[in-house]
Write a structure and sequence with these properties.
Blueprint (H helix, E strand, L loop, with lengths): L1 E6 L6 E6 L9 E10 L2 H8 L13 E2 L3 E9 L11 E5 L7 E5 L4 E2 L6 H5 L1 H15 L7 E4 L5 H12 L3 E6 L2 H7 L6 E4 L5 H9 L4 E6 L6 H6 L1 E9 L13 H6 L3 E4 L7 H21 L6 E6 L3 H9 L6 E5 L1
Parallel strand pairs: 9-10, 9-12, 10-11, 12-13, 13-14, 15-16
Antiparallel strand pairs: 1-2, 1-4, 3-5, 3-7, 3-16, 5-6, 6-8
Amino acid sequence: MKAAIMVPGPEGGTWDIRDVQRPVVPPGQILLRVNASSINRAEFRRLHNLRTQPGRPSPEARVGGGDAAGETVALGAGVTSFKLGDRAMGRCAGGFAEYALVDAREAMPVPEGLSWEEAACIPVVFVVVHDALFASGQLAKGETVLVTAAPSGVGVTALLLAKYLGARVIGTSRSAEKLERLKQHGLDVAVVTGSDGFGAAIAPVIGENGVDMVVDNIGGDVLAPSIAALAVGGRFVTIGRMSGVLTGELDVDRLAERRLHLYGVSNRLRTAAQRAESTKRFVADLMPALGDGRIRPIIDRCFALDDLAAAQAHVEADRHVGKVVIQV
């Protein structure tokens, strides 16, 4: 099968599109004939870290891609939740390939109303943002949420799910044009962050009372102004770290005085059972709305598998508004 392999190198990893062996299906897994997979920035961080160093063992090359949507073509022993020919989507290790394995506990049926490209946007980002807004942050109708880097894949998903819950959404970006495009998807207030700094940019729209929740996709460099923007009982949820800044200043007195709640959302250290439970909650809460069209993923652009390097450049240059999809 054709696959995109992450190949280590002295300056970091590179993509190599080549033929590899089709996966053998272990118990509890399903094999998908992949139609589409979406790009997640964490994949590029892993790629850049695949550096070879003299005198040290080389990192292992592997197939890239963290999610997949396609047709079920094989079932591992013990799988009863899917049958051959079913449309399915799920998190995986190796979605940038013609075939990919998915743990049946994390696999979800693809509603008929969703295209393969739309389905590929859901398994990683939608499930993580659902965890942030529904499970951790418990965002409620009528509340206000500030979403940093709103045009990003995580940002647009936070916008969609917050509006589904009936919240008011303030979105930030360095691009006024991108924010203007998001108004058709329900963005209530657009804040362009420029040379004056993040805190100065959001202050006029936050006001004295603050916001009920901040969903941050930037990193530690906006931690302090994000905490300062929260109302009493406010929640801060960090998902992305696009800036690469991993530390920030925390006002502990404000944290206590305002009775704030801080959450970190990631699947990296979760067990398979915990990821399966998160998937189950997501299906119960949001699959009906995805099925009837009340929620539709926002796709910026699609690339062919052979053009994966160009897709990476498009995302890393921050040219996109929404998810970028790889068509296999």
